[in-house]
Amino acid sequence: KILENVANIVLIKIPKSLAMLEDQLHRIRPALNSETKIIAAGMTKNIHMSVMALFEKAIGPTTTSLARKKSRLIFSQFEKALVVAENPYPQSYDSGYQLEDEALVLINHASVFSREKLDIGTRFFLENIPIADHYKNIVDLGCGNGVLGLIAALKNPAAQLIFTDESYMAVESAIANFVAVFGETREAEFLQTDCLQGVGEKSVSLVLCNPPFHQNNVVSDDIAWQMFSESKMALENKGELWVIGNRHLAYHTKLKKLFGNAEVVTSNKKFVIVKATKNKLRALQDVDFSS
Question: What values do phi and psi take at 202, rounded to 5?
């Protein structure tokens, strides 16, 4: 819990997500006092009237500096008498899926992917979550709010689940959703980590992955290939990596280079679900993805 009225200086790097900024401002407000200096910085193109409005609604009077080298500073003054609404995060929405007689409601912290509704790729993946007795340990890699792992847990009741994501907010969302469904009746492991760091080699039966194909404003498959390579290390012999992606990303070609095989499980006009199976006879090797 944040200490109250103790901050002398608060420095903020403006995030791209307005939701995340709003959550941050609500969280820091209790630590502020009339003497606190609050300085935020960001690219000029990302500082809009909506950003200024968030500061004024959550902190108090706010001004900006002149732009310098495409960047700008924001100065906000704490206003003790300001009436501030409650932090709207985490939020929740009806996923459209039923758990017996109840709707599956998903809890999402401010910076989580698909915070306001399930994206269509995830919906397609959920319709095709694999079920098998030999799935003993299942990983939801890059779990976000954990919905893939959650549905996999429901469909594979004997499996042990591991949820991983680099985002603290994503992992906290996944925990909240898992506990909301299972309470204390089932355990799972939740890791805030880089891809599969912390997951043992040859310890996993199934990895589910909906990889990002861009980081910030840069379109790149670097994160996806790291996910695929670390999945291969974590999978046991005959373990499976299931990946969903847009058709144009051609994941099946890259996975075949890495695993020696890649099977298109199903597809629609926009998405493809590909399965790659680890074969112990194929030696681990570095793969050149440049081609």
Answer: 55, 40
